[in-house]
């Protein structure tokens, strides 16, 4: 038996390794070419101290207080030279991928489908044999190379991998390099290169209610997260608010309705900022956050949207005098040519 371990480095690179039953995470990483910093391998120096964000594991008792205190262990800190996984785990490594002698993985694939969902949004799916080896945490992104150029653009996965295929929601930016390619030139079979996965915005273990806030194509990482939640279930309530500027920016509404049917504790709403909108709910996301969604601070907030939205939501939460248990966010800005 083996377990998948996601190692998240401080420079945003994520590397997945397999750890055999009874094998320490440090040994498993070293066996697969990832050198987590360590000096002693005996639980005495603390050099390999990391933070376990998800999963079950056994630390044993073969380490000393100077290397890892009881309080640190209770918070989730681990010594990877002693940590033995008992399930799939996510481990945050306080070092760069370069220091650990690993790097972004690169994959070759081809366009399987490209669709114009609206005037502002493009759905892109790519497929390839190499993608059968691709692993990422729901919410992470990848750098896609624009065909015919050396430029790359960062996009969050909007789906989990299935049969070597992944999908993205891409904002159609007038004059944008990727947008121009996808709207004018792209066709099924065109080769694409991607590198990653990257990012610290991803779904953690669900330990309390979640409030998910999406702005525009910032919806993408949440549909990937909801796929994972639909598969594993959740005993905690989840609420998503999806905000856009204009009516034509609203996409994937049927997909959200489907998630609501599949996930018993999941509810969602959408809103349009344009006051002339025909959509029933108008205004900004902050105008549709209710006190119950913040749950007196016992809530994990996930937010993905343009910088002004991130700042507005942060300010709104501060004004409510509430400190969420966790507040994870991803800012994005569109790139023109």
UniProtKB/TrEMBL annotation:
Q: Where is the 2Fe-2S ferredoxin-type domain?
A: 3-97
Does Metal-binding show up as a keyword for this record?
A: yes
Tell me the InterPro entries matching this sequence.
2Fe-2S_ferredoxin-like_sf, 2Fe-2S_ferredoxin-type, 2Fe2S_fd_BS, BenC-like_FAD_NAD-bd, Beta-grasp_dom_sf, Cbr1-like_FAD-bd_dom, FAD-bd_FR_type, Flavoprot_Pyr_Nucl_cyt_Rdtase
FAD-binding FR-type domain span = 104-204
Q: Kindly list the GO molecular function terms attached to this UniProt entry.
A: dioxygenase activity
Q: Which PROSITE patterns match?
A: 2FE2S_FER_1, 2FE2S_FER_2, FAD_FR
Recorded superkingdom? Bacteria
Cofactor annotation: [2Fe-2S] cluster
One Pfam family recorded for the sequence: NAD_binding_1
Matching Gene3D superfamilies: 3.10.20.30, Nucleotide-binding domain of ferredoxin-NADP reductase (FNR) module (3.40.50.80), Translation factors (2.40.30.10)
Q: Which UniProt keywords apply?
A: Dioxygenase, Iron, Iron-sulfur, Metal-binding, Oxidoreductase
Name the UniProt record assigns to this protein: Ring-hydroxylating dioxygenase ferredoxin reductase family protein
Native organism is: Pseudomonas schmalbachii
């Amino acid at each position: 038996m083996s377990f998948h371990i996601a190692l998240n480095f401080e420079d945003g690179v994520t590397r997945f390794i397999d750890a055999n039953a009874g094998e320490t995470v440090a040994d498993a990483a070293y066996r697969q070419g990832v050198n987590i910093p360590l000096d002693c391998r005996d639980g005495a120096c603390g050099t390999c101290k990391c933070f376990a964000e998800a999963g079950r594991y056994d630390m044993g008792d073969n380490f000393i207080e100077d290397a890892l205190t009881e309080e640190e262990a209770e918070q989730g800190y681990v010594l990877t030279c002693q940590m033995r996984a008992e399930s799939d785990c996510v481990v945050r490594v306080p070092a760069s991928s370069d220091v650990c002698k690993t790097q972004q993985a690169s994959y070759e694939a081809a366009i399987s489908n490209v669709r114009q969902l609206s005037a502002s949004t493009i759905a892109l799916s790519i497929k390839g044999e190499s993608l059968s080896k691709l692993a990422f945490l729901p919410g992470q992104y990848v750098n896609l190379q624009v065909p015919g150029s050396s430029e790359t653009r960062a996009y969050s996965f909007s789906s989990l991998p299935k049969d070597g295929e992944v999908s993205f929601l891409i904002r159609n930016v007038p004059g944008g390099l990727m947008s121009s390619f996808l709207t004018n030139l792209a066709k099924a079979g065109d080769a694409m290169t991607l590198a990653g996965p990257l990012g610290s915005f991803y779904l953690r273990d669900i330990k309390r209610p979640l409030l998910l806030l999406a702005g525009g194509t910032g919806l993408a990482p949440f549909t990937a997260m909801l796929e994972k939640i639909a598969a594993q279930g959740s005993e905690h309530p989840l609420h998503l608010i999806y905000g856009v500027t204009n009516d034509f920016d609203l996409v994937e509404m049927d997909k959200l309705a489907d998630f609501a049917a599949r996930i018993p504790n999941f509810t969602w709403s959408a809103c349009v900022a344009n006051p002339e909108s025909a959509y029933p709910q108008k205004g900004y996301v902050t105008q549709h956050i209710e006190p119950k969604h913040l749950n007196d601070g016992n809530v994990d907030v996930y937010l993905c949207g343009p910088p002004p939205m991130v700042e507005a939501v942060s300010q709104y939460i501060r004004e409510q005098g509430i400190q969420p248990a966790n507040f994870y966010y991803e800012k994005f800005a569109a790139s023109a040519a």
